[in-house]
Each structure stands twice: as structure tokens, then as C-alpha cells.
Amino acid sequence: MSVTKDPSTNKWMSQIRVKDWTGKVIHKKKRGFSTKKEALQWERDFLSQASGSLGMLFQDFIELYQRDMEQRLKSSTIAGKRFLIDLKITPVFGKMKLDEIKPTDVRRWQNDLTSYRDENGNPYAETYLKNIHNQLTAIFNYAVKYYGLKENPCHKAGSMGKKNADEMQFWTKDEFLKFIEAIKNRPSAYAVFMTLYYTGIREGELLALTPTDIDLEKSTLRINKSYHREKGKDVVTTPKTPKSNRVIAIPEVLKTYLKEYMAKRYGIQPDHRLFPHTKSYLYHELEYGCKASGVKKIRIHDIRHSHASLLVEMGFSPLLIAERLDHERVQTTMETYSHLYPNKQIEVARQLDGITAS
Q1: In the chain, how long is the greatest CA-to-CA distance?
Q2: CATH number for the domain running over 173-345
Q3: What is the pTM of this model?
Q4: Lowest mean pLDDT among 87-96, 163-172, 264-273
Q5: Angle, nearest 10°, between helix axes 126-147 and 58-69?
Q6: Which of 61, 108, 119, 311 is deepest in the core (most CB within 10 A)?
Q7: Alpha carbon of 44 to those of 1, 19, 297: distances in Å?
């Protein structure tokens, strides 16, 4: 370690050489400290992070955590994690030492989030709160598993939010028909929302589709990639999970329109994106269609729920719906859409009334 003063700038500089927690030798230099004390504090913080010390600041541990996750997760997933951490977690815990964060600190953080209200008096969604809490829990689990943290303070603090929303937003078939009629003079948007509604695919999967993914002879649509924007660039990756690679049968009404749509896309090549848009385009067209048709506004992802609710109403089994939506387990489908199935109970009772004892 070496802290010196640069006479030309009258600022302090630190140079340090140390082995990190993997055994790699790191040489680090940092200039521009106003005081010697600041330079020495930077050295201490850097040494804690490099050695994997539990006394490091939480914000320094986050750097280690994200660096490791970058080697294991998709860039789109990492971007989402980083956004959430920077927005809701680091501002609260960043300057605290990792091993000094207590369950009471987590409880105060939870209470601040659950008591928040926007300018219209609306709180954060329960599913959003759950997502934030899960991220903090994952960070501490990582510290316990790989850095020897004694315990995860989130476990004693208890959970926050809910996995599934109390009321799922979706369109009925009549609402969708009103919406799609209102955008019939917008060919690309029409094709987009027809595809989303009649297949239940995710928006990233939709935006990654190419003409080769549409088999007009077999009336199928293939999902084997996903699209997102990262740092202003188009990025196409593999789908969310291995099970997300799938082939979906499409109805005649969708196949006919997609055939017409592709025929009108002058110069489109087999490997070109069928819908060369961004997610912001989808949100804009959704808002336009809702205003024009008068149907309630839902999220793009809720169109996936609308597709599932349509299948439930038509009497299809949870197993078939799970396969179409690429849920890893049928239980996921049942947990997500269980509130829709009671609607079928009256029908079951009526059919049972038709059975007479022999």
C-alpha cells in the first residue's frame, strides 16, 4: 500500500497491490483524493472487497455479486437486476457494512416500501414488492453461500409482497375483438396484437420472430429466441428457459393474416425480424388501441394472460396450457390461473346432475 501526495495537483493518490479472493494479483491506482484520510479509506474499502471480507460495504459486495452473475445470466436479466438494485436497494444499504445489516434494517426498508404512495395515492404493486424483496434475499443468500455470512437477515425479517396479483388483468374475447377492430387500419400493430393474443407468447419472443419461424403449411409458429434492447442496440438471445423453445399451433385466422402481412413486407428476408419494432412501440400502440376502442388498458404481458384465460374458458386442460405457455410445471399454471377455474364448477355440477344412479 502506498498513499502519496502529487505536488503538481496537491491531491492525494493511492497505489495498492493485493490478491483478490480468487488468488489473482490486482494492482490498483486511484488519484484525486482531497485528503490523506480519504485515500486511506479507499484503500481499506478496496482491500475488503478484493479479499471478500464480510466487513466490506454492501455496495462493494454488489459489484462482486453482479460480476459473478454476469458470467451466468443473460445480459437482459442482468440489466433488470442492476436497475432494481440501483433503484431500490443500494441507496438504502450501500454504505452499510455487509455483516452489520440486521433484520431490523431490512424491516425498516420493507416498511418504507410498503407505505409508499404515489401522487394519486397508489402503493407499489404487491408483485413488484415481492420482486424487490426476492432480489435482496438472493444477494444475501449469495453472501451466505460463497462468503461465509452467518445468516441471511431477510429470513428473520420476513417476506414482503405477493407472488401473484390478487386480481389479474386480462381481456375477454369481446374486449379483444373491440380492440383489434380499432387498429385494423394499422397493419403492423394489427399483426402484432393478433399474434400476441392468439399465441400467448412473450413480447420479447414476438419481437424476435422471423419469417422462417412461421410455417404456413403446418400452421405453426416456432419460438427459439428473444429480443431486447441493451445500451441502444438490438440484442437477440435464447429464450427465457430451455422449455421456452417450442412450436405453437396457430389458428387459421392468424395464419391468414400473417401470410398477408409478410407478403406486404417488401424486401423482407428469411432472417429479418418480422416485427422490427421496440417494446416502446408496443406500449404506444396498445395505448392508442385502448383509447380508440374504449376497452380497459392492460399491460402487454397481460395479453398473455388473456390468451390463457381464453383457453381456460374453452375448457382446455392445465397441462395443455402449460405446454403452450412454456411453464416449467403445471403447478405454475394452476397457481397463476386458479381463480379462473371456479367459473367451470357450475358446468361440472350441471353435468353431474345429469348422471342418474343405475
Answers
A1: 104
A2: 1.10.443.10
A3: 0.64
A4: 163-172
A5: 90
A6: 61
A7: 10, 14, 52
